[in-house]
Amino acid sequence: MHPPANQPELTQQQISDEIAERHRRETDAASSAGLALAAHPRRDFAPYRSTVLRHPTHELVRADPEEIELVSPAFGHTDVAAEEADMTIQHTGEPLGERIIVTGRILDGDGRPVRNQLVEIWQANASGRYVHKRDQHPAPLDPNFTGVGRVITGDDGSYRITTIKPGAYPWKNHRNAWRPAHIHFSFFGSAFTQRLITQMYFPGDPLFALDPIYQSIVDPAARERLVAAYDHDVSEPEWAIGYRWDVVLTGPKSTWMEPEDADHA
């Protein structure tokens, strides 16, 4: 989460100018070549400071999936309890913050449901603090909220979680940098070697335009696929606000997934 040591701290305006210039160059290049904008960002997106030194410069080492799967764990319905999908009931008391329900479907590139998918979720609490030793910013921890959950998708590819809306939090990319509120999602496909990770955001966040991770996706339509929609039918009276977020794992309209070396900020 920290910028490379040999790079000076930049202001938000400098980062925003870099983002605009990068968007302009990539848009012009795609237009000149008669191509659509890429749905996934380059790994060395300079406004996201740590990518400059940390992005891979060599082809990934390919491993034999069958050999890896001989020692990799696997989960079935009996291994993931129904209670793990409700992150508000994991402790003795009620967590602080706005209770929300997030539901949707996991689909492949042809619109078919991805059944029996292991989905892992992790997030900051309502104050924007993770339960992690690396997170030391001065926001309170919540003894009744750990911020992790799991769920298995149904036959129609659907999932449903209950949690607390996370808060925004500072990070060290540049001066006065704040990450928009988000929830991390991990999808395992049919094997651990297929794991994909992404982030879900909330509609109308004023930090979108300032965030180099969100803005590393040049295509506006691809960025929008990361934003959940408020769904009044999912909301429950006097209980929780509802959001709907569908995920497409493959194809030209796939949801952006983080590169394997990402910081997961």
Commentary on this structure:
This protein has 265 residues and is an alpha+beta fold. It has one domain: Protocatechuate 3,4-Dioxygenase, subunit A (Sandwich). The protein has 5 helices and 11 strands; from the N terminus they run H-H-H-E-E-E-E-E-E-E-E-H-H-E-E-E. The protein has helices at 12-32, 51-54, 65-69, 212-215, 220-224, and strands at 99-107, 118-123, 148-152, 158-164, 169-171, 177-179, 182-187, 196-201, 229-230, 241-244, 247-248. Strands 1, 4, 9, 10 and 11 form a 5-stranded mixed β-sheet that branches. A 4-stranded antiparallel β-sheet has the order 3-2-7-8, with no helix packed on it. Strands 5-6 form a two-stranded antiparallel sheet. A hairpin with a 5-residue loop joins strand 5 (169-171) and strand 6 (177-179). The longest helix has 21 residues, at 12-32. The chain is globular.
Give the gist of this structure.
The protein has helices at 12-32, 51-54, 65-69, 212-215, 220-224, and strands at residues 99-107, 118-123, 148-152, 158-164, 169-171, 177-179, 182-187, 196-201, 229-230, 241-244, 247-248. By secondary structure, the protein is an alpha+beta fold.
